[in-house]
Design brief:
The chain is built from 14 helices and 13 strands. With about 375 residues, the protein is an alpha/beta fold. Strand 2 (about 40-45), helix 2 (about 50-55) and strand 3 form a beta-alpha-beta unit.
């Protein structure tokens, strides 16, 4: 039985919030796909800027503080148990650790014969401890890359490997078409907002302002390229983390201290990353900790924008498949400088490989749901 002919079922996805990020976007993509195929899509989170889109695409959102890291959050357990029964949830899909504890404790206390199927998606290389181990309580565990699968089996060797399903995140070719060019009105507004970019090669580092994203390496990169006479301008694109405002101030101070105030721009959060990637000459991925997948890397590559990144984690997997010219040894600043300089002077074209399509992610997720609701065999 395929998704078009499946018996309708109800899926509840739970995550901390719907502000921005790859986990959040994946939630919306799965929710939209469920609705399009006649299923009932429920999402529970603390809310955020993406709720309007979610509801506009046919899902129902429930605003619960399930992501608040406090023992008081566990008071939601009996309430969630009642919710699952009242809404006749068939599949309970959790995507983050604190919500997973609430969901797991609620689910565990239900009748095994009638409770929903429990699915977890491991989106990150979490610290290895009992708190994180809740993500392995799912009857099915989705790993977003082979990096995540290896992390699970290496750090939690008691995990039944047959419960793990690798489903790579994906990018919609219609949303990120190869060779995309922004509209003239967008370009005009961009140039008016950032006149300092005129005549420069734009190097972009996307991601929230957190210490692991490699901002210090990026600042050093721009400084060294400037010393070499390269006409570059660095863009740090990402919102400030309210819990790490001191780090954001530290970054601004570092840029000023190196005399790079005219060479590096902090844009803050932007919802037009497709356009930003399209006007960038290169995108960087310099996280010191391996990424579980590296969605922004894939988005840029799908547009045809070169990406240079450290060869570890999901980013290493993506680059090895879609743009091996962009691979650099982790933390090797000299190699990074040489690779970026070389690609600026002698570009290597990003091929239109079609790697990691969104459709594949959605089809495999739907197949998992159908397997659990006994509508297709596990081998499908």
């Amino acid at each position: 039985m395929d998704a078009l002919n499946a018996r309708p079922f109800t899926v509840l996805q739970i995550l901390p919030a719907l502000q921005s990020g790859g986990v959040e976007r994946g939630t919306l993509e799965v929710a939209r796909h469920l609705v399009q195929h006649g299923h009932r899509s429920l999402v529970m989170s603390a809310g955020g800027r993406m709720v309007a889109q979610l509801e506009g695409e046919g899902s129902t959102h429930f605003t619960w503080p399930v992501g608040k890291k406090s023992l008081f959050t566990l008071r939601l357990v009996p309430r969630l148990r009642r919710f699952l029964i009242e809404h006749k949830v068939d599949i309970l899909h959790v995507r983050s650790r604190m919500p997973a504890w609430v969901a797991y404790l609620a689910w565990r206390g239900m009748d095994p014969a009638t409770r929903p199927w429990l699915v977890t998606t491991v989106h990150g290389l979490y610290s290895v401890n009992r708190y994180s181990k809740v993500m392995l309580k799912g009857e099915r565990i989705i790993a977003v890359s082979n990096t995540i699968r290896d992390y699970i089996l290496s750090n939690y060797p008691g995990t039944d490997a047959s419960r793990i399903k690798v489903i790579y995140r994906g990018v919609d070719a219609a949303e990120f078409p190869y060779g995309y060019q922004p509209a003239p009105d967008w370009l005009a507004a961009w140039r008016a907002q950032y006149p300092q970019l005129a005549g420069k090669r734009i190097l972009t580092l996307p991601g929230r302002l957190t210490r692991l994203k490699g901002h210090a390496d990026f600042i050093t990169l721009i400084a060294r390229l400037k010393q070499r006479g390269q006409p570059v301008h660095g863009l740090i694109v990402g919102g400030e983390d309210p819990k790490r405002l001191a780090y954001a101030r530290e970054l601004h101070a570092a840029v000023a201290a190196q005399g790079l105030a005219d060479d590096i721009t902090f844009t803050g959060h932007r919802s037009d990353m497709r356009e930003v990637f399209a006007v960038s000459d290169m995108v960087l991925s310099l996280s010191s900790k391996p990424e579980s997948f590296g969605r922004t890397v894939l988005e840029a590559l799908r547009l045809g924008t070169p990406v240079v990144g450290y060869n570890h984690g999901g980013v290493g997997e993506i680059l090895a498949t879609a743009y091996p010219a962009g691979l650099v040894e982790l933390g090797n600043m000299d190699a990074l400088i040489e690779r970026v300089t070389g690609l600026l002077e002698q570009p290597v074209v990003v091929e239109d490989s079609g790697a990691y399509p969104l459709a594949a992610m959605l089809e495999k997720t739907m197949a998992l749901y159908l397997e659990l609701t006994h509508q297709i065999s596990a081998s499908t």
